[in-house]
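Per reviewer request, we include the raw input and output of the structure prediction for the construct analysed in the revised manuscript.
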Amino acid sequence: MAALIAFTARSLQTENPRPFGAAIVRTESGELLLRALNNVAKEFDPSSHAEVRAIRLSTRRLKTLSLAGYTLYTTCEPCPMCMSAALWAGLDRIVYGATIADANRHCKQILVPAAEVAARSDMKCIVDGPVLRDECYALFTHPQMLRAFRTWQTRRRKFAIA
């Protein structure tokens, strides 16, 4: 998780800061398969969350629909869409940092805990978290990210009016 936080924090020094990062690792060995960041704005795709991107890129890289044998680490608790994608991908485990309530302080969220989504499914997946919550939440409260959140809110209003 610490490596994922450091990877995600590097985006805070760019023009496009993002607090949402995800990594897929082999469950048994901890070997990193890949990491991804949220890319909603750049791709004009509301589903381009870090977790979904990591799952898409991983299945493509492995040329399989199943990520059984892998764990998803994420800087923030997966939203219901991301948790559903993780379940459909067959991930063994999800480990998250900041909570969905933490994220909701800064941007809109669907406030359904990841563990609840998993519990309501007939697909098995362990959900662990929060892990290193303070360090992950610091990504949300970094001054560069706070500035970006203000533009996200302005952009949303513009799109809603247009």
